[in-house]
Amino acid sequence: MELSVNVLNWLGRPKKAVNAQTIKFNRFNLIFNSRCKLKPGQLIFINIAVDIHSLREVSARVESCERCGPHYQTQVRFVLERPDKQPYREAIAILKAIEQTLPASLRAPLHMQVQ
User: Fold this and answer.
1) Phi, psi values for residue 98, rounded to 5°
2) Which member of 20, 23, 90, 95 has the lowest number of beta carbons within 10 Å of its beta carbon?
3) Helical (H) or strand (E) element with 101
């Protein structure tokens, strides 16, 4: 699984993508290691590619971020609704397909909670 994170600058524009390593994933949440120190509540963009499936700049909100050796372990929840409060059905379908193609070691239970 290829994963990168775009942190937003103070103008709301994405900065250069930073590579990240997936720890756990499901269609609603993601836990990853990266060199970025993020704040709970912060909005970021996630770029994911697995086999034939890929999503760019999926919005996610940081749930927690803790130091883990030389990196930071971050848990995010995907923001999957449009400004008019309707769900992004296409993104949800692709996240579900990505979840199904991942090995069991990377898949997180759907009830995964903040640690």
Assistant:
1) -65, -45
2) 90
3) helix 89-101
85 compared with 99, residue with greater pLDDT:
99
The contacts found for 70-73 with CB under 8 angstroms, 24 or more apart, are 70/35, 71/21, 71/33, 71/34, 71/35, 72/33, 72/34, 72/35, 72/36, 72/37, 72/38, 73/23, 73/31, 73/32, 73/33
- Domains of the chain, by residue range, sit at 1-38
User: Does the pLDDT of residue 36 top 70, yes or no?
Assistant: yes
Structure tokens at 91: 């993104």
Question: In angstroms, rounded to a whole number, what is the distance separating the alpha carbons of residues 47 and 57?
Answer: 5
Looking up tokens 């992004």 gives 88
d(CA 66, CA 115): 10
